[in-house]
Structure formats: structure tokens, C-alpha cells
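The instructor's notes for this session suggest beginning with a concrete chain rather than abstract definitions. Hand out the sequence below and ask the class to guess, before any prediction is shown, which regions might be ordered.
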Amino acid sequence: MARYFAGLDVGGTTVKSVLVDETGEVAGSMVEVRSHVKEGYEATFAQLESALDQLLVPLGASRSEVRGIGLDVPAPSSHGVIWGKANLAEDWVGTNIRDRFSERIGVPVHMTNDGNAAAVGEYSLRHKGVGGLLFVAPGTGLGGGFVLPGGGLYEGANGLALEVGHISVPFLEEDGELPTCACGWKGCVEAWVSLVALRRRLRVELAKSKWADHELAQSEAPVEEKAFRLREFAEKGDALATEIFQRQGHILGYALADLVRVFDPGLVVIGGGLAETGFRDRYLDWVRGGFQERAWPMYVHSPIDPEKATTRFEWAVGGDSAAALGMAFVARELFG
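After discussion, reveal the predicted structure:
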């Protein structure tokens, strides 16, 4: 009988799922089903089972051949218990999702958040000599994760480590105030580096007279649609889009300098939708610029070998499947 390990990545819109076998090879293709997280965790469990069956059927396999599941959720959790609602329904909070799903499906389950899962996925897709890996993903918010040299995921004593979006940066709005983050605090890096922040900055910029003739200023579309188009403009070298993304990249790099000073990962991987854009090389240069402004020189280049970069920056390579793949590898490691 074959032995498989599943990775189930629960998002606000879809559930992505993959299988790996006992040798660590991916079995079949990624399966994606609609997410029902706002309808409650029981509705989501049904979707998880559906995804699992869709993985197994093409292989002629059954659930009895699944020996472990790695599950990630878009919310803070500790030892399987959801600690914050995020974009989930109310019944998730305070519930031991890990144990309830494990009991329902009859398979051992390990659970973490989506940032941790993607970090492990990116680590698993690279050669084993990577050392540590710090992962950050600008999206609706700013998530992250840290993989130790050797492949161990660092989650902290309560599973709550690496809330990277909520470290402070000293960048002010035009009125001299720190911007307010979605978490309610002021000055978080996520208040500059996220889709929500992008919309805010676009509103501020379009209110300025220097952009009065810009196509986006002339448009009657809602700011959400305008912000979505901003990447398209940046790819064409548009001055407004370039200015907004350049500031975002610089601030992200500045914040990463403090994280690197704490963890010294050697490799920083940036995920999220920006990894797929046509201006990503320029964006990475802006990140490096912000990093070099804040980082000590030894975190940029080795004092012994000046040609050697002590901190490298790369784009994510796992795409949509990174988190699910990471959780499948975690399941194999824990339950294999």
C-alpha cells in the first residue's frame, strides 16, 4: 500500500492541495477548490475532504493511504487553536481546528499559518545547502515565516512567531503622522507594504495636483480597481506607479534589515503577487536599497570576503502551490 502525505492550504477564496509520496516526490497535480471559510469551519472541512478525494482518485488511491496532513490557515493559531478571526467566520476562533479535523478524517494533522507554510514550501523547492530562509509575502497584508538551517520551521513557543507585518518603521505620512495599520496600531510596516496600504497611498497621490492629468485620476473607477491596475502601469514605467512601488519596496527593505539583524537567515525570499510582475527586478533593487540604508555593513557583505553577499534576496518560485507543498513536506517529516 502506498503512503501519501497531503498539504492543504486554506485561503479566503480557494483551498489549494497537493500530495507527496514517502520519497518526497509530488504525486499528481495540485487541486484547487472553492473556500467556504466565511461559512464556518464545518463547511470548510467538507471542502478539505473534497480536495483530498480529488487528489487521490486520479492515483487510484484511497484515504487509508494518507498517513498525515499538513494544514495551514490564514489566521494566527497556537497548537491547532485559532486565536484571531482574520477573514474567517466567528466559529473558528477558540476552536481546535487541528484536532477536530483530525478526528473527522481519521488522519494525524499538523496546523500552522499560511506564512509559515509558504516559507517551508520555498525552502523545500531549493537545494539543501540553503541554510536559513526568511520569507515575506506582500498581499492583502504582509505575512512571513522563518525556516531554520536544516529545514525546521520556527513558530515560537505559542506558534505565533514571525508576524513580520507588525514591526515598526519610522516613515510618516504627509501630515507628519504614522499611518494606522489594519491591526489598529500605528507605524507597522504592513501599513506601507500591503494591498490595503497601496490603496491608501494611491488615494493620497491622486489628490495631488501633479497627477491631475493622470489616467487614474481621470477615471471614475473605485480605488480598488485603480490599485489593481497599478502593477500594469508600473510595468510600463509610469511615473505615479513607479513612485508608489519604489517607496513600498524601500520601506520593506528597511524593515527587513531589522529582521535580518535578529535572525541572520542568509536568504530572504519575497512572495506574493509581485513575484509575477514585469517590474520585479526593479522592485527587488528598491528592496535592496532600503535594506542597505538600515542594515549594518556586515549583513550586506562579508568583511572577510567583500565579494560575498551575506544576505541574498530572491523571488519566490513556488507560486500558488508553495504553501500546500510546504505543508505536505511538514506532514511527511512529522508522520512519515
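Then share the key points. The CA atoms of residues 187 and 272 lie 22 Å apart. The chain has two domains: 4-125+320-335, 128-316.
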